[in-house]
Amino acid sequence: MNALPEKTCSIDKLIRHPKLIASALAGHKTQQRRDGLYAYPGERFFLEGIEFEIIGVDRQRLGDMTDADADAEGYPDLASYKTVILSMHAGMQWNEDGLVWVHRFSRRLE
């Protein structure tokens, strides 16, 4: 098993947008892509007092994303995901070979 590199940001910054927080709380959003590594498997974080756990982290090419991945990100499809991401990051271009960290998480049950 390959060791993951050092984190580039703290886990509390993984999900910050109110709509995405609401989607995670509703159980729809289960993934977050970032250009850096924000968490390791087994780490936990809270959204509005609800505990979540990172269940997996891996690298993925943007070009390998599917509609199912976009849905797990909280968007209806890949086209919608691309539109929002590009509008949030001025000057960004969608690079099919660009690598991102996929953080998979689940809500912790009591």
**Uncertain regions spanning at least 5 consecutive residues:** none
Mean pLDDT: 94
In angstroms, what separates the terminal alpha carbons? 30 Å
What portion of the residues fall into strands of 2 or more residues?
25-35%
CATH superfamily membership, which one? Sulfate adenylyltransferase
Order of helices and strands: HEEEHHE
Architecture (CATH level 2) name: Roll
Please count the helical segments.
Answer: 3
Which word captures the global form? globular
Give Rg in angstroms.
Answer: 14 Å
* Highest CATH level, the class: Alpha Beta
Number of strands: 4
Helix content: 10-25%
Q: How does the major sheet shape up?
A: 4 strands, antiparallel
Q: Report the structural category.
A: alpha+beta
CATH fold call: Sulfate adenylyltransferase
The main sheet orders its strands as: 1-4-3-2
Total domain modules = 1
GO molecular function: kinase activity
Keywords: Kinase, Transferase
Protein name: Fructose-1-phosphate kinase
Organism: Methylomonas koyamae
